[in-house]
Fold these 2 entries.
Entry 1:
Amino acid sequence: MNLQQAFITQYKDRETSINGQGKTAWHQRRKAAFADFEKLGFPSKKDEEYRYTPITRALEREFTADTLADAPINEALVKELIQSVIPNDVQANQLIFVNGQFQETLSNIISPSDEVKIMPMSQAYQAHSELIEQYFAKQPGIQPDSFVALNTALAQEGLFIHVPKNKVVEAPILTYFISDTTQGTSVATPRNLYIAETGSKVSMVESFHTIGTDASYQNAVSEIWVAPNASVHYTKLQPESTKAYHTGTTEVHQSRDSRFTAVTISLQGAMLRNNLNVALDDEHCETHMYGLYMLNGKTHVDNHTAVDHRKANSFSNELYKGIMDDQSRGVFNGKIYVRQDAQKTNAFQSNANILLTNEASIDTKPQLEIWADDVKCSHGATTGQIDKEQLFYLRTRGVSKEQATAILLRAFAGDVLENIELDFIRTQVEEVIDARLNSNF
Amino acid sequence: MSKDNQILEEFAQSDYKYGFESNIEQESAPKGLNEDTVRFISAKKEEPEWLLEWRLKAYRHWLTLKEPTWHNVSFPDIDYQDIIYYAAPKQKVRPKSLDEVDPELLDTFKRLGISLDEQKRLSGVAVDAVFDSVSVATTFKDKLAKLGIIFCSFSEAVREHPELIRKYIGSVVPAGDNYFAALNSAVFSDGSFCYIPKGVRCPMELSTYFRINAANSGQFERTLIVAEEGSYVSYLEGCTAPMRDENQLHAAVVELYAAKDAEIKYSTVQNWYPGNKEGKGGIYNFVTKRGICAGDHAKISWTQVETGSAITWKYPSCILKGDHSIGEFYSVAVTNNRQQADTGTKMIHIGKNTRSRIVSKGVSGGFSQNSYRGLVKVMKRAEGARNFSQCDSLLMGDQCGAHTFPYIESDNSSAHIEHEATTSKIGEDQIFYCLQRGIDEEDAVALIVNGYCKEVLNQLPMEFAVEAQKLLALTLEGSVG
Amino acid sequence: MIKITDLHARVEEKEILKGINLEVKAGEVHAIMGPNGSGKSTLASVLAGREEFEVTGGSVQYMGQDLLDMAPEERAREGIFLAFQYPVEIPGVSTTNFLKTAVNQIRLHKGQDSLDAVSFLKMMKEKMKLVDIDQSLLSRSLNEGFSGGEKKRNEIFQMAMLEPTLAILDETDSGLDIDALRIVANGVNALRSEDNATIVVTHYQRLLDYIIPDFVHVLYNGQIVKSGTKELAMELEEKGYDWIKETVDVTA
């Protein structure tokens, strides 16, 4: 049985064991998604959206039907990991998922419940059925994607966040999606739903980790609803293992006067694919998208972003930077759509890449699709080496070549890193980068 | 009268002025496509056996291919059996000189502004005139022959220089390269052939003028230019067609071969009939153009001004194989009414220190859709490769679209690639400034657009630059407001 | 030549001109002065026909025609010239080409033959001397990368080429050093005649030392609050705009 069929079987098993939820409208959406997945299948080599990332081949090589079963968890190792990534003095909500399952004992919610509702999706299906009905799988998506369809069909667990009107969530919400492969490969399908009501403000972080040396695969989807005048800051971190595979989609819907910022940092993995789709569905929305992929070894990271300007007077800005070392491979695809109603749109996109070795590669495809005339849109993409003039200048001031290179790369990445909201996370990422810069030269 | 005023005057006129039809007795192949059609064309052209085999092989391969769908244009299915693949003016004997050419044909080209009379023609341009499936006349052949330059119709080249054709045909665009190239390879009718021997700098512009006249016919010309070591040639191509309600297919192939230190400059002003305002009729322009810089320090430069055709699908490309070779692509693509264009280039960097430059200016008006699609690929051994791309889109009106699809693939860390793109509309304050100086709005638009495209237009040889400016103005007529 | 009666204009929802009355006769030079935001540039733009400004009341008679009824290019062809405060840059369009188009369109309008390349060049050479402008500047893209002074000189050069009946100079002096100012003013003076008129819009009195006005009007809060001769300009320079503000705000 190939992987695709295995997932289909898994869905059918779950479908028979379901009780009570089968008639709800959102469950119908799940069924429709399954039909989509059956129709789409995994993306083929010829699929334009996956032309640089042969994820299907990789997944079918690493995972089989047997690997879909829930893997046992080594709690001690998980605890150790959490302690290493969350400093003691950090005031934050922490939510832990291991191999797709919520870990209540390891999690800690500190925000008062009138400020924000935070709970696993498995509870939210009952506790907030009306919100689930209203929001779950309701974003049409800018284009159909097999992995999103599969996720919707299989979704059981993940994080649910609901911020009521005009509430400011003081403590950030940190979620760790951990694959524990110490006792075999791990496959998980986290499905998250974040709703920020009118005038509210919230900051959340998703971090993906793998413990152990076996292969892991997480197929994650986060839906984010940003209501009028609300403000959401979203960070996605991937300090993964070299055996980690990931397909993740963050689907964002913005209403009038809302603000959304995303920062996506990818540091390591086997093959990681991130889709970030933002629909600016009303006027005066503001969107910022930042990304850094700093890759070594054989890591392959593919960032696909799409900004869909549907109404007038909105602003979007995107900055993605890549540093590819060793035999790593970076892929960037950024789409800006400006629909006919979206006059007076300002949309900017920039992608800059540095290749450190001849074995590394980058494929980038910035893309503009514009149907409105009174707009200002631009994109730029560059790939190259460290600027030799700059390097020379630093060396004439007595800095060693290695040190100068590190300084320049750090500065190159800095434009993106400065947008990470939480200090301790920015510091952690910087430490990884610095360690890598020093060890490499 | 000044150059600008001519433009303005043309601008004030309306519609497609090349849309007349010539009443010339034709002979043609029966409608439809099968192996017999291919044999018929080959026989008409008195081709050698190997070329017929080459065509048949291409035809059989074509049968296995599917029409591409990845482009950003849409059109009803083409019925390949409803096309006449060969149409030619009836001529009893092959004319030996211009005196023997049908006067009606000469008159047709005269009305298009192409005089085939060497005495009356600017002495700097040699012309090969292609009417439907055959070349009508080639001027200045003798003068060029003295330098060893071969400039003749493709059919003549097959007869007179079979060894050169056999060596280079399909060497840059293989017969099965893509759907339309395979179709062309099977049924290509005529076109031009240029051969510039080693060390020769061609003293005049070589030019081919393509004219579709016959109804229900397709045009499938094939051009091959070979520039030997250290040679130079500048080649121009122009095209028009009568106004007809049906769509007509044009699937051409152009191959350029530049040896060490050779330079080929290839310019196109494409003005096939674009269809009427509602999108009825017009040419489907599916063209494969590719050049190879085979030797070190070779250079190929494509310049195109695309104003015509209902649909344009073409990507003039450069394979930069020789070290230090250079590829350039300068393009203006203007779409109005219901036109659709998906055009751009591919720059494949294989050799060391290869350089490429892409300047693309898209202008869309009316209900048209205009896409830039380009690939810059740097292979592993292309040390020190450089590319700069600038792709700008100008929108005039709120019903049209501008799209940019650049693919950048780098496998070499020393490569330096820069891509920039912008999309904007004509500035209202720019138009107002012109109005305040007494220039009316349409002229103001023409001025500003010509300015916007200047970097590309400057690449064209003088005679063509004027023509191209007029065309831009004509194409954009009625796009503002 | 031009008679402005009770002119009201607004941009978006904001009323800027609140009843302007002004008559300019052939051969006259009028200066319109006023503090920033008083509506000076708006008046200039409205006369040239900029569409962002909506005329909500009043009338403008120009050479016996209803000016407000005319398109901007018609006004230009009928002899109205606006020297812009901030001339726009038009990449890729050379000044020469641009002017040839404009000159010939205006000639066409007047029923004259268009100029051939030789006569046009001759005319250009003559007029260039007036503002001491360099040939190389004119072959560059219109205003692109020009310094402030070059842009202003180019405006006056264009004015010389187009030979307007009514020239409106919108803050032509701002941003100019005294040498450039002198060159520009000399150009303007050389073009003065019994048949044409000039409206000089300015914030500073300095320009009026070089272009001597017959009348000076002070614009404040959308209305002409004071009119006089060049002595008024001197008085303003001495006492500053606050003096006007005080007198007006007190009487109001």
Entry 2:
Amino acid sequence: MSFLEVAGLRAGYGAAEVLHGIDLAVAEGGATAVLGANGAGKTTLLRAITGEVRRSGRIAFAGTDITSRRTDQIARLGIGHVPQGRGTLNRLSVRDNLLAGALLRRDRREVKADVEDCLRLFPGLGERIDASAAALSGGEQQMLAISRALMGRPRLLLLDEPSLGLAPRVTAEVFAALHRLRAERGLTLLLVEQNARIALNLVDAAAVVEAGRVTLTGPAAEIAGDDGVRRAYLGV
Amino acid sequence: MTTTERTPAVPAALSARARPLRWVAYVLVAVVLLAIPQFASPYTNLQLTLILVYGVAIVGLDVLVGRAGQVSLGQSAFVGLGAYAAAYAFGHGWGPVAALALAVALVGVVAVLVAIPAVRLRGFAFGIITLALPAFAVPLANRLVDLTGGSQGVAVVATTPPEWTGQADDQWRLYLVGVVAAIVFWLVHNLLDGRLGRALAAIRVNEAMAAANGVAVHRNKVLAFTVAGLCGGVAGWLYLIAVQFVSPAILQLNLAVSLLVALVVGGTRSLLGALLGAAFFVLVPNVTDNISPGRSYLIFGICLLVVLFFFPGGLAGALRRLLAWTRRRIGR
Amino acid sequence: MQQIVDGITAGSIYGALALALVLVYRSTGLVNFAQGQMAVVSVYIGWSLVEIGLPVPLVVVFTLLASLVIGALTERLLIRRFEGQEPLVAIVATVAVLICFNGLINLVWGGSVRAFPSLFPDEVVSFLGARATWGDVGTVAVLVGTVGLLQLFFLRTRLGLALRTAADNPSSARLLGLPVGSLLLVGWGLAALLGGLAGCLVAPSVPLQPNMMDTILVYALAAAVLGGLDSPLGAVVAAWLIGIVETVAGANINIIGSDLRIAVPLVLLALILLVRPQGLFGRRDVERL
């Protein structure tokens, strides 16, 4: 049984259904990318997993059925979600943003150590640690959002379009950090990305979502080699 | 070849016949409405008149609050100013048209003068500032005793039914107020149908975006404020005609808040909503008073909460949903 | 000088209620018009406790506890429904709550005027050329202390951080595992506590009647907006400013009688907002389109 298992997932907003039966599985320690064009339903998929939209079907995390749980309950089970747009806490400082990620933890000293870890992962944040989070650039906010999610020591990290709106150099920085996270901590990742090239470089497996359905899944190398994918998403 | 899919509504053959039927229905409703004052008691006629009066005030408030999205707590000041202006005019022997002109002119000037600076504020700041209107109006009315009769108020004889109509006072007033109210509703509806309505809708949704799209936000907000004030002024004139008396009570914050509540209860952005809200405001307190005088206020509050809880679109929204539901059932 | 002292005292009461308004605004994004009336309910409960013979300090404690419960219950049962909707409906809902509480007070206690005992001794103290009762001094001290405690609470404690997080971005807060609903409940409870505090501070010197907080609410609203609506410190400073200006203007400008006094803070508010639309301490919201 997989670490994260999604079966027959339907989800949508109001009367509109966006996902029409998604099947997906992520192994523990693995990393999967979800690729697809705008409006395909990739963000809805992540939001369905964390219970932010109306959904039906079956979603199981580490053996627990989370299909009808509330968002905060799902988060407490160990799923971190870096939302699209980063969800920065604008009126708080950078430090407070990080600490907010660890609010449910009791181990004070470890929390401090984790803050240091995050600053090592993203040195740019260290210089701005007492600044208001709203003053950060887009790239810095992305790094902050990822760090904040990491502060909760999640077992599974969902990332929604981390490269969105970022310059290539900054995107490379962010993804380098993600590489390190996989290598050093064995973190399980589910990554939604429009930038297929950089995503496929990071992950083991990938799924292509089109119009609310999974049209292609497989190991990353296979997906990267697929002609359709190359034409549509890799610009080849 | 495809046939166009028709919703389970009226099939083509019937709808061609339905249109004249519709007009017959409208005429029937109009006849009934016109006939009511002949058979209803003076008290009922007064209630109906008041509903129309407040309906006009609320329709105006809706332009600013419902359409442009700016919370205002000052409408009562405009109603009161209109009423006092009319009282002054009638008291000095002017005719009703002149009185209306005075009311509208005064209210218009005040509205524009207040709006121009006030409209620069966003959200709640604007709302709290509009509190200043009743806050100033009440003491002013109390103090300018020569003009306003002070806290005692002023009683005037505004209009009397012409001989040839053979109507009693209350009936004549209801018709007069009804006609003027209908004109105001029609004017406002036309005003909102065009560019102003779209501009205000854009402003309500997102001011910054509206500005970025070329909407003259400041000017349109001033316009909305002025329209609201003008309607308030007309409502004041109508009030005086209906009640023949005005006192500082009409200027109070209480009424301003009540008008806002009535607007939401009836349903924003809807003419029917304005009337339903006015009806709620005029009739429900009487009902609750009859149920239990000691608990009247509490029951009224509970009624309010019930409506807000279960009918987020206001009473008008609920009515619309009911109509849609019945139409679906009939169509089957 | 006397007027300034009086002004600061009056301002402290407005400030306590203004703090409550700011707290509610920051956590739920709406202005609670029932804040004053909620406080009045708890003060009446306190009065009943006095009538059955409880000593005054204990009565105050219970009154504050009652405020907390009233605030939490109101949020959970009445207001939660309106939190997602347009602010206009939420505001009108708070007005409906105001009406209900007013009606409730009239029903349970009746509308006649009563008296509430003071926490502080009645003697007058004199300093800097002005006279003030211990009650006045106590009021200001309590407010200053409260502001200090609040700052400490919000900036240094984990619950404070949790509340700030939920207030800043509820959906992000949920993703971090925070029970946002419960946090809003706590926020409203705290705000109601501050309102109850305002009630206790003002009750000894003002006749106890169902409408006693109505004018104070207007002053508190003006103070909250003047301070910038999302700044607790701003609300308090603004409240003091309003208190001082109102007292000084009322005493020295003859044309301002008791009925126009309420217009003074509004004029002050209008003047300052003309120059600085975001209030004294408010932040210019940069909206990302």
